[in-house]
């Protein structure tokens, strides 16, 4: 374990050995065989621990492979148009959704839970230091129980701050937003819509409750200006959208409507 | 007064409850004065009374409605479900039905081959004398209806012929193609008339002629295109008279109204109302949340047939006789009859699964929003007497709505795939629909149910039309053959 970055310094100054990359590649290739030898020779408790570790790795690898295979294949066939199409069929595609299943049961379970088909399915996990900044308080500036939220947040219309003496999470008013630029994938337009609330923040429940909006957050937006109506005639005025940018870096919230 | 005596005869025999009724027409005008009738009076008796009050030479067939419910067997039965106040005068609304009756088509009399690619559009001339079809093989064909054989093949377009439209006097046919060109044809010789009207940059989505009663020479035709503009062409001079821009996306449908207003529906979710003679934008109707696919005017059928009266049709369709002035007056009187008291009504169908009923000459807010379909709406049509609106949708059903209020009436189910096009018979009693499942179905609108199933096409049916004299139905589709159906 290098104590300092002298290795990097040397590399910067003098570069790599001429055979460095080849040796590294070959070493990695040999590693597989070496591990196998080790696994064969291990006995007793060490073997058990090692085998258990390998087993969990194998399961995770299989899961990721299955996840890749279980694709929702949406084949968009252009309606066959060599012969001639009437004007109402021009520019219309037959959307055939074929679900390639490897595990029917898992799919059914997912549907029951109500997992959405999100534009950003997985989000980079952010650590607490990025989201919350420590604010020192007290006469001697030693107390560090207050946190300032570094990210964009949404507070409702009737939000009043708690008594500042007891406020643990501070949401700066400069980082509070009311509107989002929502992109509708079918109409191919972006509309500026009011935010009704923050539904889910994938980082943690705490951030959902605080109303913090980061990339990948599901928010509810007011779509009454689109004029959508259910079959029974009721007007839809709220729909979910997923945030697609980093609002604290851009100064605006861009989201995609989940249709 | 005759009605009183009639009623008194019966009530003497039986002790029947009597009600005070008054006849009222659709527009709200009262007819005669209130009088006494027994509660079990039948529609026939009511018809006698009403005809006597109307003092017409020939008795008209009438339908009677009480509180939006039709009187079928007797007045009493219809009122059973409703709370009747015997003190007040009951209003019975009478609706004159078409005097003539169109019979349902039952058999395919001929299957006309000739097109080498799919038949995209089919249209009968306003008198029903000629039949024209446009196809993907870039030709327009005229067909002789008396022998049911090909008449003329008109070559001139260089891409699929997407839309065809007859002039209201039946002397010219305008056809628009996928290259944006419009050609005019003479049905009696099959030759091109005038110059090619080029100007649009993308394909033509709709064509609409100026109404006959506005200009009996049928000089101007309007065309809408994917490039988002509407152009008004002068056919005698062969040039573009006016260009109406304003839509930001493709204009999907176009209608030239009888009041001098032009209506255009577009994929940018709006409908724009223009003044035809100077091209000024009057109104923008907003409300839809997705592309507006189709539109229909309440006076569509009257504008299409011009001076031709379907009731006077003969077995062999003839050209209209009379001077231009006479024909113009006839067309105007027919138009005013269908239009009624109020302004023209417009119905628009969209990809957002709903329809809107508008009164575009008055207000930019819709009258009603008609929901219920579960897939996009491909075509809406007013019935020729403008009382019913039929909407064909990709959810395999056709829905009927009241033409005045937009209230839902019935659903016609039977097709097993998307319904593409519909056509009304001239008496507004029958509806024919062509669908992606390669069948046509004839529906009886009064009892709303299926009257006739017409299989025969080998592939999807792209276009249907019912001739204005009511004798024939023509349909064409992907299987490249045009079928004519008769009784």
Strand content of chain A: 25-35%
Oligomeric assembly: heterodimer
The DSSP helix count of chain B reads: 5
The helix content of chain B, as a percent range, equals 10-25%
Q: Based on Cα principal axes, name the global outline of chain B.
A: globular
Number of helices of chain A: 7
Structural class of chain A: alpha+beta
Could you describe the largest sheet of chain B, including whether it forms a barrel? 5 strands, mixed
End-to-end separation of chain B: 45 Å
Low-confidence stretches of chain B: none
Question: Strands of the largest sheet of chain A, in order across it?
Answer: 7-8-10-11-12
Task: Kindly describe this structure.
Chain A: This is Ribosome biogenesis protein NSA2 homolog. Chain A: Involved in the biogenesis of the 60S ribosomal subunit. May play a part in the quality control of pre-60S particles. The complex is a heterodimer of chains A (259) and B (487). With 259 residues, chain A is an alpha+beta fold. Helix content of chain A is 31%, strand content 25%. Chain A is built from seven helices and twelve strands. Chain A has helices at residues 6-14, 20-41, 44-69, 104-113, 128-131, 205-210, 247-250, and strands at residues 72-78, 93-99, 132-137, 143-149, 152-153, 169-170, 179-184, 189-200, 212-213, 218-222, 238-243, 254-257. In chain A, the strands form four sheets. In chain A, strands 7-8-10-11-12 form a five-stranded mixed beta barrel. In chain A, strands 3-4-6 form a three-stranded mixed beta sheet. A two-stranded antiparallel ribbon of chain A has the order 1-2. Chain A is extended. The two termini of chain A are 52 Å apart. By secondary structure, chain B is mainly β. In chain B, 11% of the residues lie in helices and 43% in strands. Chain B contains five helices and 37 strands. In chain B, the strands form nine sheets. Chain B has a five-stranded mixed beta sheet with strand order 2-1-5-3-4. A four-stranded antiparallel beta sheet of chain B has the order 6-37-36-35, with no helix packed on it. A four-stranded antiparallel beta sheet of chain B has the order 7-8-9-10, with no helix packed on it. In chain B, strand 28 and strand 29 form a beta hairpin. The longest helix of chain B is centred in the last third of the chain and has 16 residues, at 324-339. Chain B is globular and about 75 Å long. Classes of the chains: A alpha+beta (259), B mainly beta (487). The A-B interface holds A 83-90, 186-187, 226-233 and B 117-118, 120-121, 135-137, 160, 162-163, 203-206, 252, 269, 287-290, 293-294, 352-354, 369, 371-372, 374, 378-379, 420, 462-463, 478, 480.
């Amino acid at each position: 374990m290098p104590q300092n970055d002298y290795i990097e310094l040397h590399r910067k100054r003098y570069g790599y050995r001429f055979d460095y990359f080849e040796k590294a590649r070959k070493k990695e290739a040999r590693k597989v065989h070496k591990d196998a030898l080790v696994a064969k020779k291990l006995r007793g408790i060490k073997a058990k621990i090692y085998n258990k570790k390998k087993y969990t790795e194998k399961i995770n690898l299989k899961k990721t492979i299955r996840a890749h295979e279980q694709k929702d294949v949406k084949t968009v066939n252009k309606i066959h148009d060599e012969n001639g199409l009437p004007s109402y069929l021009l520019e219309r595609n037959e959307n055939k959704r074929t679900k390639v299943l490897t595990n029917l049961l898992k799919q059914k379970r997912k549907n029951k839970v109500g997992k959405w088909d999100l534009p950003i399915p997985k989000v980079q996990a952010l650590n607490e230091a990025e989201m919350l900044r420590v604010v020192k308080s007290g006469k001697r500036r030693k107390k560090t129980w207050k946190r300032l939220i570094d990210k964009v947040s949404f507070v409702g219309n009737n939000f009043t701050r708690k008594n500042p003496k007891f406020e643990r999470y501070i949401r700066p008013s400069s980082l509070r937003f009311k509107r989002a630029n929502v992109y509708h994938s079918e109409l191919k337009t972006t509309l500026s819509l009011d935010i009704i609330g923050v539904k889910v923040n994938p980082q943690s429940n705490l951030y959902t409750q605080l109303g913090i909006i980061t990339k990948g957050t599901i928010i509810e937006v007011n779509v009454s200006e689109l004029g959508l109506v259910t079959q029974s005639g009721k007007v839809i005025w709220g729909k979910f959208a997923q945030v697609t940018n980093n609002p604290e870096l851009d100064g605006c919230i861009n989201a995609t409507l989940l249709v | 007064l005759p009605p009183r005596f009639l009623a008194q005869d019966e009530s003497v025999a039986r002790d029947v409850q009597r009600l005070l009724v008054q006849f009222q027409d659709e527009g709200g005008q009262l007819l005669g004065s209130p009088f006494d009738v027994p509660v079990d009076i039948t529609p026939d008796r009511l018809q006698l009374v009403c005809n006597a009050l109307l003092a017409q030479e020939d008795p008209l067939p009438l339908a009677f409605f009480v509180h939006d419910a039709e009187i079928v067997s007797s007045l009493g039965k219809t009122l059973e479900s409703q709370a009747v106040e015997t003190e007040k005068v009951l209003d019975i609304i009478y609706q004159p039905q078409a005097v003539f009756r169109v019979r349902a088509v039952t058999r395919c009399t001929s299957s006309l081959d000739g097109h080498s690619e799919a038949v995209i559009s089919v249209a009968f001339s306003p008198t029903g004398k000629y039949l024209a079809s446009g196809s993907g093989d870039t030709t327009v064909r005229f067909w002789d209806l008396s022998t049911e054989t090909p008449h003329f093949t008109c070559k001139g377009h260089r891409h699929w012929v997407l839309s065809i439209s007859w002039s209201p006097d039946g002397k010219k046919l305008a056809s628009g193609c996928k290259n944006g060109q419009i050609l005019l044809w003479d049905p009696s010789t099959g030759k091109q008339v005038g110059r090619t009207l080029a100007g649009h940059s993308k394909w033509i989505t709709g064509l609409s002629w100026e109404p006959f009663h506005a200009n009996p020479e049928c000089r101007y035709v309007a065309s809408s295109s994917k490039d988002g503009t509407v152009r008004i062409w002068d056919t005698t001079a062969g040039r573009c008279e006016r260009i109406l821009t304003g839509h930001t996306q493709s204009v999907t449908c176009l209608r030239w109204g009888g009041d001098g207003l032009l209506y255009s529906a577009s994929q940018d979710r709006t409908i724009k109302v223009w003044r035809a003679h100077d091209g000024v934008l009057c109104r923008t109707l907003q409300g839809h949340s997705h592309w507006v696919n189709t539109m229909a005017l309440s006076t569509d059928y009257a504008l299409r047939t011009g001076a031709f009266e379907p009731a006077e049709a003969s077995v062999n369709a003839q050209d209209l006789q009379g001077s231009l002035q006479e024909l113009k007056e006839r067309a105007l009187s027919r138009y005013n009859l269908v239009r009624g008291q109020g302004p023209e009504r417009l119905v628009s169908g969209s990809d957002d699964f709903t329809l809107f009923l508008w009164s575009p000459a008055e207000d930019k807010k819709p009258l009603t929003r008609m929901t219920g379909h579960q897939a996009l709406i491909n075509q809406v049509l007013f019935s020729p007497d403008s009382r019913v609106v039929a909407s064909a949708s990709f959810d395999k059903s056709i829905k009927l709505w009241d033409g005045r209020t937009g209230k839902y009436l019935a659903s016609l189910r039977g097709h097993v795939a998307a319904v593409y096009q519909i056509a009304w018979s001239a008496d507004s009693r029958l509806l024919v629909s062509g669908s992606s499942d390669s069948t046509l179905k004839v529906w009886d609108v009064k009892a709303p149910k299926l009257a006739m199933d017409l299989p025969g096409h080998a592939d999807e049916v792209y276009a249907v039309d019912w001739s204005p004299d009511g004798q024939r139905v023509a349909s064409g589709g992907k299987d490249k053959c045009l079928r004519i159906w008769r009784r």
